[in-house]
Amino acid sequence: MLRWLQHNHQALTAVGAMLVGVAALFVAWDQARVMRAQQHGAVYPVVQVDGFVSNTPTTAAMGIRVANNGVGPALIRSVQVNYLGEPRQDLDPYRAVLPSGYELSWAGLTGRALAPGETVEPIRFSWSREDVSGAQMRAAADEWDNWTLTICYCSVFDRCWLSSALGGAAAEPVAQCEATGEDVFEQLGQGPVVPDETSLQSADSSPEDEQ
To answer: Distance between CA atoms of 92 and 182, rounded to whole angstroms?
Structure first.
């Protein structure tokens, strides 16, 4: 064995060089993997969807807030709204049961780049405080239980997630965002909905303490 080693030192040198090359290749691969993870982590968006109810001495309001609580921009690719589990392209069933006399504001979500820390209200209903009771507001808020809002968004590196429901549900990673048609919130200005007089207005309309 010693004699073989003495006469084959070139082969040993080649084997050693090969082992060093393999180790260097592994180190380079591992460093590239760590760098990619750091890059993705540095631009990781976290979109959360929450409903809100607001009362001031002069105004009562309710709606939906969409916030990016991550550290990178959220590129919103699609929005889907379901009512009782069925896809909807409008919010007419909800608007029809609201107390009358509301002011409506809205903002489209599809195609929006939501910066870290940014919040948008895709829909907001507001009333003069004397025109709506606390019971009516609670009933209107409870009606959201029949609705689900799903937002598909991506990072700048095209990693995508689905954020669903109202209440901060954890986002689910997906391979890509599929188109879901027109943004339902962009359709809100295309005509008024006549409120149903037998709906939430039948709730107790007695004044309540301001919150």
So the answer is: 15
